[in-house]
Every structure is written in C-alpha cells, then in structure tokens.
C-alpha cells in the first residue's frame, strides 16, 4: 500500500508541475528544478494554490 501511495503522490506532483508550466509559461525543466529546490517565492505560492483550486 505504501508503494501505491508513493505512486499517487508522484502522479499528483506531475499534474501540479504541468499546471504550473501551463499557467506560468516557464519550461518544464525550470519548473521541475524550482519545485525540487522549493524555489517558488512566497508571492507565487498563493497564486499556485489558487490555480489548483480552479
């Protein structure tokens, strides 16, 4: 079951990454690196959360 949950989290991360790429216009590799390093600035995080709610 742990493996299934991990796979689900990876799928959610991929979806989140694609949404962020689509909404920001940044290349996939930039968004992926930023998410890996948690570089999203405090100003962008609320915007990202709003995008996910849409």
Automatic annotation (TrEMBL):
It comes from the Eukaryota. InterPro entries: ClpP/crotonase-like_dom_sf, ClpP/TepA. This is Uncharacterized protein. It comes from Nymphaea colorata (pocket water lily). The lineage of its organism: Eukaryota, Viridiplantae, Streptophyta, Embryophyta, Tracheophyta.
């Amino acid at each position: 079951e742990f493996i299934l949950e991990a796979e689900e989290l990876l799928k959610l991360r991929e979806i989140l990454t694609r949404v962020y790429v689509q909404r920001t216009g940044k290349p996939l590799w930039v968004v992926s690196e930023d998410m890996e390093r948690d570089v999203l600035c405090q100003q962008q995080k609320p915007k990202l959360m709003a995008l996910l709610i849409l």
